[in-house]
Design goal:
The chain has 200 residues and is α/β, with parallel strands linked by helices. The chain has five helices and nine strands; from the N terminus they run ββαβαββαβββαβα. The strands form three sheets. It has a four-stranded mixed β-sheet with strand order 4-8-7-9, with helices on both faces. Strands 2-1-3 form a three-stranded antiparallel β-sheet, with helices on one face.
């Protein structure tokens, strides 16, 4: 069924976009909530104006996101956690933990779904994690996982882990390469939210 999106629905369509969706999804979710309307000449005429509004909103979001990138640049997110033998964590570091730490630096709450972490972190180390601040601004941030009870202290442990990178030598960095497209797909099928539910 072809519909025109009246609002942006994460993982489904942008405001003003014409997309073909499953009839049940349209009837049971999009149309009753006023998120989309069936494709008609009247609605199509309105779609162009909606697209312009959405592009303007997206430009504004991108500008704001670029300003936030400056706050995160050169500031590794230090996660001090309890560690067992062989550097394995007693628990794990999740996208919720990283979102909370990044939010402290940014001075605002960050939705966990913006942290594009493919799997939880279970070992001490330095990780590169993409953060989607807006649709087209996705900087990589460094997440440094250290033992909260490190004999030399947390700060010294962080410096020690980052030293190989600062020397530009081959580092034991565990980088997560995640495509934005894959992350968007994952977000659309997030088990904790109804498909197509806009993210905060």
């Amino acid at each position: 069924m072809k519909v025109v999106f009246l609002e942006t629905v994460e993982g489904s369509g942008s405001m003003g976009e014409v997309r073909t969706v499953a009839p049940g999804y349209a009837r049971n979710y999009l149309l009753p909530r006023g998120l989309a309307a069936p494709e008609t000449p009247t609605v199509l005429a309105r779609a162009e104006r909606l697209r312009e509004i959405e592009e303007s909103r997206q430009r504004s979001q991108d500008e704001r996101a670029r300003a936030l990138v400056g706050k995160l640049e050169g500031k590794p997110l230090v996660m001090a956690v309890r560690v067992g033998e062989q550097g394995r964590l007693y628990g794990s570091v999740t996208n919720v933990d990283i979102a909370q730490k990044a939010g402290e630096i940014l001075g605002e709450e960050l939705d966990r779904r913006r942290i594009l972490l493919p799997e939880v972190i279970r070992k001490v180390g330095v990780y590169t994690v993409p953060v989607r601040l807006s649709r087209s601004v996705v900087p990589d941030v460094q997440v440094v996982v250290v033992d909260v009870d490190a004999p030399e202290g947390v700060d010294a442990a962080v410096v020690e882990l980052l030293k190989p990178e600062m020397e530009e030598a081959p580092a034991p960095t565990q980088a997560f390469a995640v495509s934005v497209a894959q992350a968007t797909e994952d977000e659309a099928t997030d088990g904790e939210s109804e498909p197509g539910t806009p993210s905060a």
